[in-house]
Write a structure and sequence with these properties.
alpha/beta; Alpha-Beta Plaits; 2 domains; eight-stranded parallel β-barrel; 14 strands; DAHP_syn_2; EC 2.5.1.54; 3-deoxy-7-phosphoheptulonate synthase activity; DAHP_snth_FXD; DAHP1/KDSA
């Protein structure tokens, strides 16, 4: 249920009204104060609440029920876009076009530092790199694990770029916090790992939540809801392609998900064109399409020697190729109201 308060409502009146709602109906109230109006989002069992009774209050402008099961991620509860801000001043959302780039896997100090320097010089603001790797085969390279986190921090010190890396298990949370990971990525395979999502809700660290291989848009938002319900509202949604019957590409980029998510949710949306296509030459056109569709950022795989990459070499750009793609993004982003 959403309650819009009148513009002349005072802060004392709002606080008193919120306390009354919580005490009377046992709901929690999410308050959004905007320039023109104040919106109260009631979360919990609202079936027994009489809309006419609420609407009769002198400070209430309008009342309506919300049918969608996701509440905190719903734009109806939070009309303005959420901007995820980092302590160093960087942000995701709010009219910016964020570039997150780096190798699929951290393989060595020389590799990650070289790639970090190149993508940073090309305009990337965040460094991605996998220390822990979920692989289909148990015999494939699984990442350097804790050592990989240490090497990411070496590259961070060299470039100043915040780290984005994937968390696979609740058991790794303390390790990630100790390593100072700036943005924790939840991979496609863990989108509905609800125990993990609940624990991430207790953190303040931003969470990059990837859409599952067969996840619907509503399921993605419900996964975001798990995190936000725990108190962590720093969630970034990521469209990375879904599994369809098409075999030419690794996945099928659901470009329509970008404007849909932007319309029904206030959370920032980034696109992963590398995992979507699975082919390096597809990264540029898919990235361009994502910018045009309204994405707030891109996460792109870059490797200094893709042919010898220990994982996902086929979809990785070389640093020179990333220079070109980043240049194209800089050209077109302002045409769609974005700035780097």
């Amino acid at each position: 249920m959403i309650i819009v308060l009148k513009s002349d409502c005072t802060e004392d009146q709002r606080k008193e009204f919120v306390a009354e709602l919580e005490d009377t109906y046992g709901v929690s109230v999410n308050t959004w104060v905007g320039a023109q109006s104040t919106v109260l989002g009631l979360i919990g069992d609202t079936a027994c609440i009489d809309i006419d009774n609420i609407g009769a209050n002198e400070i209430v402008e309008s009342v309506k029920r919300v049918q969608e099961p996701y509440k905190k991620a719903n734009r109806k509860f939070h009309p303005d876009d959420t901007v995820v801000k980092l302590p160093n001043g960087l942000q995701i959302g709010g009219g910016t076009m964020t570039l997150i780039a780096g190798p699929c896997s951290v393989e060595s100090e020389a590799q990650i530092t070289e790639v970090a320097k190149r993508v940073h010089a090309a305009g990337a603001q965040f460094l991605r790199g996998g220390a822990f790797k979920p692989r289909t085969s148990p015999y494939a390279f699984q990442g350097l694990k804790a050592e990989g986190l240490e090497l990411l921090n070496v590259a961070k010190k060299e470039t100043g770029m915040p780290i984005v890396t994937e968390l696979m298990s609740v058991r790794q949370i303390d390790l990630f916090l100790e390593a100072g990971v700036d943005v924790i990525q939840v991979g496609a395979r863990n989108m509905q790992n609800f125990d993990l999502l609940r624990e991430l809700g207790h953190l303040k660290t931003p969470i990059l939540l990837k859409r599952g291989l067969s996840g619907t848009i509503e399921e993605l938002l419900m996964s975001a809801e798990y995190i936000m319900a725990g108190g962590n509202e720093n969630v970034i949604l990521c469209e990375r392609g879904i599994r369809t019957y098409e075999t030419f590409t690794r996945n099928t980029l659901d470009i329509s998900a970008v404007p849909i998510l932007k319309k029904i949710s206030h959370l920032p949306v980034v696109v992963d064109p590398s995992h979507a296509g699975g082919i390096s030459w597809l990264v540029e056109p898919l990235a361009m399409a994502a910018v045009a569709a309204g994405a707030d950022g891109l996460i792109i795989e870059v490797h200094n020697n893709p042919k010898k990459a220990l994982s996902d070499g086929a979809q990785s750009l070389t640093p020179d190729q990333f220079d070109h793609v980043a240049g194209r993004i800089k050209e077109i982003a302002p045409l769609f109201g974005k700035k780097l």
